[in-house]
Structure formats: C-alpha cells, structure tokens
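2024-03-11 09:14:02 INFO worker-7 job=invfold-0412 stage=load source=structure_tokens
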C-alpha cells in the first residue's frame, strides 16, 4: 500500500522503519553513556541537574525500537503506538535538557570569577571559560541542539502520521457489508443462484411439512416404498419423487 514518502524519496513505511532502527542504535549509545559517563556519547552535558535525563530516557529504546520494527513490518498500530509515545517522550527530554544547557552556557563568560564556580563542579563549563570560547560554544551548541531537535521532531511527525494511516486503514480489512448493494451483481458475475431464501419462504414454518412427512412414513407398508407426491414428497435417495407409484417386491 502507498502510505506516502519520507525524506522526499523514501517510502513512508521504509522511512519509519529506519527511524525505529535509529531509536535502537541510539539506545545502545545511551547505554554506553550511562555506564561510562562519557559526554561524547550524549547530546547534552553542561547543566548538572539534567545531565542524565536524555540518556536515561533513551535506554528503553533498545526494546521500543525492536517492538516498533515488528509493528511496522506487520502494520500493527498498537505496537507502532509504543514507538510514537517513546519518540514524544524522547523529544521532550531533548528540548528540556537543551534549554537547561543553554541557560548554563550563559554563565560561561563570568564562570571563573563567580562564587558558584567554587561551590559547584562543572568541568565542561570550566574548560570553555579557560579557553575563552564561550560565545562560540553557545553558538555551536544552539545550532547543534536545534538540528538534533528538528531531526527527532521530523521523525516523530512521520511516525505518528504512519500510525494514523494504519489505524484508519488496517492491513486486514473487515467487510461490514459496505458492498451489500452489489450482491446481486456478484451472483450474476459468478453465474450462480443466490442461496438465500426469499422473504415469503423464510416466513413459512417448516414444522407442518416435517409432520406430514413423518405421517406418510408411518403409514408406508413393509416391502414397499411410500407414495410420494411430486409437489412435496422426496424419495429415499433425497430426490424429489416424480411419480405416485408403489413399488412392490
């Protein structure tokens, strides 16, 4: 099915699959950053209060990314929904941590002479202040964090759009009688008779006919077949009788 495109040239389903795989790979980096504490494996690190937030949020992506890949492959909206929720949480964590980092970088120029420098340990900010590159660091961080946030927002948007499509048009369609108006045309196309009874035949009770058949069977003689009427009787072979004859042996 055609779901649209992603990244201009990729089919939407393939693009969202790449997003799920990227979530899984990013979760591996977050796991490494969690155990090593290396700032090079995480997108933030200047604000100490939010130092670990994007990393801890990204770790569950190992499971969410795998579930998302299976859901995209099988067009299961319930599984893709978990991926969408995770992307929204991840995006919120990135925005929060980036704003906190940029707020901390505003203190870079006067960091070495501030009292906070003496009471709070912030090695990253100290290195920037000693190198006297605070304005460039703020500009670089603003550009880099904006690119990362816009990229994940783009991935979240397309994943959410794909989830809406498979929810509105599931892979296994269920017919609720929408094409019932064309039923007669289908019987004519296959050159078969409609097996359903007419309204008059459905209203006729079958119990009197069964009683009549039982009475005829009780009055039938031994060694002879019962006399069947061509209108209502049926023979032993299940065929409707054509003659009112008695067969004696």
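2024-03-11 09:14:09 INFO worker-7 stage=emit residues=249
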């Amino acid at each position: 099915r055609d779901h649209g495109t992603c990244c201009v040239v990729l089919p939407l389903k393939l693009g969202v699959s790449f997003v799920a795989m990227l979530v899984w790979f990013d979760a591996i980096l977050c796991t490494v950053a969690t155990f090593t504490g290396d700032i090079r494996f995480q997108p933030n690190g200047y604000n100490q209060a939010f130092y670990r937030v994007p990393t801890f949020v990204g770790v569950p992506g190992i499971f969410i990314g795998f579930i998302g890949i299976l859901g995209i492959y099988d067009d299961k909206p319930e599984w893709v929904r978990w991926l969408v929720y995770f992307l929204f949480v991840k995006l919120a964590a990135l925005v929060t941590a980036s704003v906190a980092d940029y707020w901390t970088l505003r203190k870079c120029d006067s960091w070495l002479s501030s009292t906070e420098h003496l009471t709070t340990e912030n090695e990253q900010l100290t290195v920037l202040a000693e190198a006297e590159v605070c304005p460039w660091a703020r500009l670089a961080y603003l550009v880099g964090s904006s690119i990362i946030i816009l990229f994940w927002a783009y991935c979240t948007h397309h994943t959410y759009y794909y989830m809406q499509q498979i929810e509105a048009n599931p892979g296994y369609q269920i017919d609720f009688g929408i094409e019932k108006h064309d039923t007669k045309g289908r019987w004519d196309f296959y050159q078969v008779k409609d097996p359903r009874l007419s309204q008059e035949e459905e209203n006729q009770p079958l119990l009197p006919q069964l009683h009549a058949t039982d009475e005829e069977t009780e009055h039938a003689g031994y060694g002879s077949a019962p006399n069947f009427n061509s209108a209502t009787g049926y023979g032993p072979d299940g065929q409707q009788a054509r003659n009112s004859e008695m067969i004696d042996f």
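2024-03-11 09:14:09 INFO worker-7 stage=report msg="The first helix runs from residue 12 to 36."
2024-03-11 09:14:10 INFO worker-7 job finished
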